[in-house]
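Q: I have 510 residues here and want to know how they pack in 3D. Can you give me a structure?
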Amino acid sequence: MKTSRTWTAGVSGVVALSLLAGCGGNDGQSKTPGAAAGAGNTSKPLEIKMFAGLYNEVPDMKNAFWTEWQKRTNSKLDIEWVPDGDLNTKLDLLLASADLPEVLAAPSAVRPTLLNAVRSGAFWDLTPFLGDLSEYPNLKNNLAKDALKYLTVDGKIYAVPRSRSRIDPGIKIRKDWLDKLNIPVPKTLDEYAAALKKIVESDPDGNGKKDTLGLIGNEIIVKDADPSFAAGFGALDPTYNAEGGMIESRLTPQYSDAVAFYKKLFDDGILSKEFAVMKKTQAEELYKTGRAASYGRSVWWDNEWETAIKKVQPDAQILNLHLKGPKGDAIELQTGVSGGYYISKKVPEAKVKELLKYFDQTASNELTDLAYYGIEGVHYKLVDGQKVLNDQGIKEVNTTSKGAGVLAYSKWGKVESASGSKAYNDAKKKEVEIFDEVGKVNPFNYTVSNTWNSTWPKYENEWKANVTKAIVGQITLDEYKAYVDKINNTPEMKKAYKEFAESYKSFIGK
């Protein structure tokens, strides 16, 4: 997929940390209508150039959805959409070039290259602009708990959030295949492995071949389901070394236990042999065409994928599992913030204020509803009180369409399918509602260490290679653990872990 050279709008937000406790992370959204950047305004549209992630086909910015979005916000968006698979690479190159767009939509607020750019003065410190948020009612009332706090660097907030629900990824399994093979729904990671083993050794799709894949993933050691599996082994729990430093989750003893689990899956023919090199698009296609039993992605894909699978396997049903691991539930939660919108310091101060008004409006209930469902009669119709997307809605209203605004926090935002019926979505919410209670947020999604940022890039590729080697048996698990111990005992890493511990202590206020 080629990158569409269309720059877009985005923005950063800021607020005094003492006010953050009032930012409710509830399912509801404030009834406060946004202070519109341009709704009902006859002034010239606000032109915004933005760099943002592309998660679907390159959108036609003149289609019905984007025309309505720009009309309501009185904006003219010029967005460079960058495919998800290339996003971090392109982001790093862009930050290194210093040739920044007006707004940068970053999927992670703790990426080292981004933090370096922030500290070098590449982006506006928004704290003085936002003050007590009294001028930005939607940013004050409609964000997840601590949303702006997650975007803080050295005590200052440099971005407004890309709001996403805490419940997001699920470890999926084909429920219809479990039923067909008389396999009980797995409740533990061991039962999950046993169920997948029986599936791959059978012929659940009835094609006369034992060619069904078990667990698929793309670069599973850092993507998709991996944090959920790691949570089951306790790797997302704060873990400290002898000096009181907080060990990065992937280098904890618990994560080594997760690697051992992956190795067993691989040895038993359950983990796809291509796990380390498979692209996300390839994994998704395998699952959508009924080739695999299990995959880890956002819950909201279930209805769309079931519909696709039913073209070849009419009884297809996807279930997101609640699995118990030896040291916790295998469920990862998000922070409610998926990175943020950063404003280039090249933007004049007067325009920063206009951009913040735009972003405040995008955090309104009205704009959030548009981002999730589009226009009634054009993109969706009401069926039993549920907004159900039609074909045009499915094409135009998707993950990418949520990429130009903050959006109000929605508990079920990554669970509800806009193309599913009310009954379907109600059942799906009941299926995963416990996730919000028992899941874990990885503390390294929001803690910061300057030493880690400068040190980890020296080891990251080598570490990934060693994880893969351990899983496929090219090195022993003891050799892998010795490798991790060697990294953890370097002076640089010990210093990084001290910094992480201080950052975590500061965040939780203890």
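Q: Anything worth noting?
A: The chain has a mean pLDDT of 90. The two ends are 47 Å apart (CA to CA).
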